[in-house]
Amino acid sequence: MKRHWRIFCEFFRTCLVEELEYRSEFLGNFLSSLFGIGMAILTIQVFFYQTDNLGGWKYADVLLLLGIFNTLQGLIDFALRPNMSRLLQHIRMGTFDYVLTKPVDSMFYVSFRHLVFWRLIDVLLGIGLIIYALIQKHYMPTIMDAVMFFISIGSSLVLIYALWMMLMTTSFWVIRIDDLSFVFNSFFETTRFPIGMYRGWLRIVLTYILPAAFITSTPALSLLGKWNGMTTILSVVLAGLFLWISRRFWRYALRSYTSASS
Amino acid sequence: MFRKYSVLLRMKYVEMFAYRLATIVWMTGAMVQPLITMMVWMNIDPDQENAFIFYFAALIFVERMTSAWDVWELEREIREGTFSYQIVRPFHPIHWAIAENIVYKALFLVILIPAWGLLAVFIPALRLDQIGAAQWLLFFCALLLAAVIRFLFSYTFGLLGFWVTKVTALYGMFEAVSLFLSGRIAPMSLLPPFLKTISFYLPFRYMVGFPIEILTGSVQGMDIVYGFGLAAVWCMFFMLAVLLLWKAGLRKNQAVGG
Amino acid sequence: MSIQVEHLYKQFRVHVRQAGWTGAVRSLFKREIRTVEAVRDISFTIPSGEIVAFLGPNGAGKTTTIKMLAGLLYPSSGSIQVAGYVPFEQKAEFKKIMSLVMGQKSQLIWDIPPMETFLVNKAIYEIEDRAFRQTLDELVELLELEELLTKPTRSLSLGQRMKCELAAALLHRPKVLFLDEPTIGLDVHTQEKVRRFIGQYNREHRTTVLLTSHYMGDVTALCDRVLIINHGKLLYDGELDMLTEKLTPYKLLEVQLSSIPDISWDAYGELVDAKEGKVTLRVPRERIHEVSSRFLQLFDVRDLNIEDPPMEEVITLAFQEDAHVS
């Protein structure tokens, strides 16, 4: 663990050095992030122009949810997304063999080798929006709320990572698609709105099969003081389960990769 | 010209086959956002459920039929320098893009129309028996115009790539704005009055929303005429833009190299 | 006259971007512009059917000149005529009689077989069915493309792809062919094949070929005439052999002796190498006969060889001497 952390720091440093070469791009990136979140807020305003609640969530609640969504998306774009296309390239060009020869866990290496720092702006803007929404709501989370929030946001990070890795692992077989991350986006978009909005079988799918519900809704509810111990525990269990599955899947893919190539 | 097109179409068809999996994944993925938006609206106003289902299904269809990706293609070709080959050949590169659009949109049609028919069996809201012949005709004209405007809009931005390095980012911003103004976030009638007014004059409504409004019958009488008028104006505007930018871009490219 | 270039100049204006935060902000308001002279006063003519090499280190202005000749760039001043056309006017008739191949960029469509690109070119260049089939058959045979035609381009090796690029560029039987680094990145064997093809094609079809390269092998194998360019200026225009004579007033004398005598070689020439009975000397051109006959008289010579210095050396010299050559 400690070793992986050190390596991660090293990845962090090299990517930072690389990006500082292009620091004049800061303004453009900042503006596009600001623009992105602005548009997302405007979308919600369009909805609330016609109603005063969405699946039982008030305007400020949905803003808070959006803040969490934006933060998580920023983290995905920061650490996970930049690596997807590289893995595809590695596999296509056969340079994945180099990765395998490195004395680092290959799953760790392919998921965190490349980082894009500009996207941390989205994380900051997302956190800003969370704080703004809490002020709007005049709600000060208690310590217990905060604890529950951090547990559930931790599980949602693990969940995202696991789901992302499972998708990324399929690239061993479907190398023809340039950017599989598009598939993930489609799924992740569903977490932009309160899970209560979905009905029937879709809600069940989004809770248990593709656990979108635990990604944004559970942390948001925790921070609003509406947490439920059982749900939080369930989110931790699911996160662990998905991580385990993704790990198994990666191993399986590696085995078939190494035995297929000569 | 006709022979050239038949060869280009065939080539693009073969090429599409190489990307068929990606195309289908892409197409399915593009449906997710409208579907989520649809569910939001069904939550807000459960009484209008059927109207929303119809609106957003039509949206998915129209959105696919008018979608434009040319700005990315052009940006890549200009950046990688392979655009030079397009310049030294005795054939305007826009024809390649047009051929590509025809092939892909034909594929979308072949998939979406039977899918609609199948869904209509189970979902009464999707049945089309209320729509008259005149309305169909107007819809197809508006759809064709929408596809042309959106294509030209995207191509205009692509040509800006001669001057601007990150033109897709700029295009992305316009796309984001157009989500509201083209009727992709909400049917026009549900937009706040301010947005409704500006969307009437800007080109975005005529890229997606207008044909859907004709199909749902929410635009009637003289408003249809005005709509076609404005769409035609925008269409000509972007045609002119492509023409002028192409000439200027070629000169610019000749001055500094690609 | 096939290619005629007179007093060609090309300047680029580039924005100078300063490093650091303040630099980035400052460049938003005031852009510093620097003029780079890529090509300075180049003139030459190439009669039709000739094959000429354009030599020079990276950034010398080779590609810029080729791009001007192909109409991709217009000159800052000076005039160009290619087969009677002014390239940058971009006339369709001009485009139909010329072809451009860039070793680093591909015109083949990546994910489908090369044959598809060929068919598209057939339509675009309006090639008749019969002419197309004939040309294609010939190219397939010369370049050994048979099995490559139906494989997706992406699965071809670099050398195979280059051969297909050449075929795609030649389908409309251009009168003028511009090759920008056609052998770049290829292995020696494939380089040799591509070279042989270009030479043969030029001989058979009397196509005017202008090729840039920084592999000497391309040049010595294909061209009698070279244009040497550096820092945008034409340093030399003439026969390859003459260049050697002009630049290197000496030859290499290799003598195989039964044993190497322990003497000073200074009286004969400059010693390059002496081992295993073989002595290599650098001898001034005018003394070469005298020195070799003295060798034959004085020593037990088993073998004697007179050679020009290697081409690479000559070219390096040309770039070093710059002004002295022209």
- Whole-number tally of structural domains of chain C: 2
How large is the share of residues in beta strands of chain A? under 5%
Share of residues in helices of chain A: over 70%
| Subunit organisation of the chains | heterotrimer
Based on CA atoms alone, the radius of gyration of chain C comes out at 25 Å
Order of helix and strand elements from N to C terminus of chain C: EHEEHEHEHHHEHEHEEHEEEHEH
Task: State which percent range the strand residues of chain C make up.
Answer: 25-35%
Q: What is the CATH topology assignment of the largest domain in chain C?
A: Rossmann fold
Rg of chain A (C-alpha, Å):
19 Å
| Quantity of strands of chain C, as a count | 13
Element string of chain A (H = helix, E = strand): HHHHHHHHHHH
Q: Span between N and C termini of chain C?
A: 23 Å
Query: Could you say which overall geometry of chain A the principal axes of the C-alpha atoms support?
Result: globular
DSSP E strands of chain A, number: 0
GO molecular function (chain C): ATP binding; ATP hydrolysis activity
Keywords (chain C): ATP-binding, Nucleotide-binding, Transport
Domain ABC transporter (chain C): 23-256
Protein name (chain C): ABC transporter
